[in-house]
Amino acid sequence: MSDRSRTPAPVEASAVRKTTKVAVVGAGAVGSTMAYATLMRGSARTVALFDINKAKVEAEALDLAHGIQFMPMAEVIGSDDVAVCADADVIMVTAGAKQKPGQSRIDLAEATIGLVSKILPELQAVAPDAMYVMVTNPVDIVTYAALKISGLPPTQLFGSGTVLDSSRLRYLIAQHCGVAVQNVHAYMAGEHGDSEIPLWSSATIGGVPLLDWEGIDGRGPLTVQARDEIAHEVINSAYRIIEGKGATNYAVALAGSRIIEAVLNDEHRVLPVSTLLDDYYGISDICLSVPSIVGRHGCTDRLAVPLSPLEIRGLQHSAASLKDVARKFGF
């Protein structure tokens, strides 16, 4: 028998490339920019946009699709039908009430929780095995409510938390100290909001504890005053951006795409996501951001980073504030 007549050998299942799919719920400023960032970074092979506004979501998907030639190879789809999210590996929930200038994140809670309670069961029906990342604000309360509504384990559903806030913190430290931001390791913890705290005692620059940093090139150490000014800027920067342009979208989209990659690539990356705590420095039954391990199985572990007594009190205060809000909504 000639070679031409041979039947091709079947391809083993292990040899078939597994495609990855990310669904972004909400095609507003944050959702559409997150889809863009995910495509530009090549985070997933398929990016699906879901929004109840049919004309808006289809237009956003089409605009993105027209630029696929200039991105890592991928497919982008958009629809007002939840079926577009079917079999997604990761679902990023960005839909929610829009934060207005001067409005606190907590003020947004009621409308956003109502929306989440409606769309979560629909999403679970089409993508039961997805990792769910809540992005919409107030993210800690929304994440806590979403866990109660969905019944999903806290490994499978968590919030974007202070991943963006920590990036802001690192940027400001780098600017003050004259070093590359990639060499700064520091976290914001607690609420993604007014009661969040910087973890100064565990922060480092190139392995040097930040509190021992003596400065370079004529730049002095980070004094208490400088640290307080940086923390104030981190906490209030979102309000400044919203006042100036109406929404924050670029940095939060990049932070979200980083979480997506940590999951899809099973990186076991340490990220300060908002997750349900269980006796973390005495804090339980509330979602807060602490350094956690994120990989293909979701948010699997929380790191007990060393905290000063002041930081422990700050974290506990943040937890108490959020618990008060959660109780107001019956959770």
Description:
Pathway: Fermentation; pyruvate fermentation to lactate; (S)-lactate from pyruvate: step 1/1. Belongs to the LDH/MDH superfamily. LDH family. It catalyses: (S)-lactate + NAD(+) = pyruvate + NADH + H(+). It comes from Sanguibacter gelidistatuariae. It is an enzyme of class 1 (oxidoreductase). There is one protein chain. The protein is α/β, with parallel strands linked by helices and 331 residues long. The chain folds into two domains: 144 residues, NAD(P)-binding Rossmann-like Domain (Rossmann fold); 166 residues, Alpha-Beta Complex (L-2-Hydroxyisocaproate Dehydrogenase, Chain A, domain 2), CATH 3.90.110. The chain is 38% helix and 16% strand. The protein contains eight helices and 16 strands. The strands form five sheets. A six-stranded parallel β-sheet has the order 3-2-1-4-5-6, sandwiched between helices. Strands 7-10-11 form a three-stranded antiparallel β-sheet, with helices on one face. 45% of the residues are buried.
